[in-house]
Design a protein that fits this description.
This protein has about 240 residues and is of the alpha/beta class. The protein has helices spanning about 35-45, 60-65, 85-100, 120-135, 225-240, and strands at about 10-15, 30, 30-35, 50-55, 105-110, 135-145, 155, 160-165, 185-195, 210-215. A six-stranded mixed β-sheet has the order 4-1-5-9-6-10, with helices on both faces. A two-stranded antiparallel sheet has the order 2-3.
Length: about 240
């Protein structure tokens, strides 16, 4: 819909080191390096016009380029630490593109490499909603299970025992999820599409003043950070592909 008249870039950020799963981004997930699933989803999107991988690893860079993405630089070490936020990485990528390729996108889609359950249509839907709502940012989400919402989350201290979130007495909490005053959503790390200028405000952020959501089925929540996540996501992936 927007690919022909808009510059919509997908940026995949992938470091070479991972504490939870060593070399996670290039570990084989169903016969492909994990990052390749993200690259291919972007390449098969109808709206993405450029796919860029920002990495500090020559090995990841080589795999990214071989799979069809652009990866024209190695990310500086100072923005490739465990504690580095996303914003400096994205700012570096956009500044590099403007300086070296005179490229300035109309939208940026941050595509985490850690969710191989993502489909190209999810990216397209996120970008379409970004343009139709004129939001500063659109993020993909799913509705949180009732026990994971703040309304039924439990805090505990050795002195006072267990309470609902914000110190609400367990006897005074909601007894039915239908009584919750609001739906609560969890981000699923499938896609975030935002205005590039968000990154260059006084407080750089992928978010802006007006943020929208794209709700989808919880089955696509596949953010991999541990070996357990990996095994669960592999199982779900197999079921989703059988169902096709």
């Amino acid at each position: 819909m927007h690919k022909q008249n808009k510059k919509n870039i997908a940026i995949i950020c992938a470091r070479g080191h991972s504490k939870g799963i060593p070399k996670k981004n290039i570990k084989l997930f169903h016969k492909k390096p994990l990052i390749v699933w993200a690259v291919e989803a972007c390449l098969n999107s109808n709206n993405i016009s450029k796919v860029l991988v920002s990495t500090d690893s020559r090995e990841i860079q080589e795999i990214a380029i071989k799979s069809g993405a652009d990866s024209p630089f190695i990310r500086p070490k100072k923005i490739a630490e465990d504690t580095t936020p996303l914003e400096p990485v994205l700012i570096h990528a956009l500044n590099w593109l403007e300086k070296n390729e005179s490229y300035k996108p109309d939208s940026v889609s941050l595509i985490p490499a850690t969710n191989p359950l993502r489909k190209p249509c999810h990216i397209d839907e996120c970008i379409n909603k970004f343009y139709t709502t004129n939001a500063d940012n659109v993020m993909t989400v799913h509705e949180s299970p009732a026990n994971y919402t703040p309304y039924w989350s439990v805090t505990h201290s050795s002195k006072n025992g267990a309470f609902f979130y914000e110190d609400i007495d367990l006897r005074n909490g909601f007894t039915q999820r239908q009584a919750f005053p609001n739906k609560i959503y969890a981000r699923n790390d499938i896609a975030y599409t935002f205005k590039p200028e968000n990154l260059f405000k006084s407080k750089p952020s992928i978010y802006g003043e007006f943020n929208e959501i794209l709700e989808m089925d919880r089955i696509y929540d596949g953010d991999i950070n541990s070996h357990e996540d990996w095994e669960i996501t592999e199982y779900i992936f197999s079921k989703l592909n059988i169902a096709k």
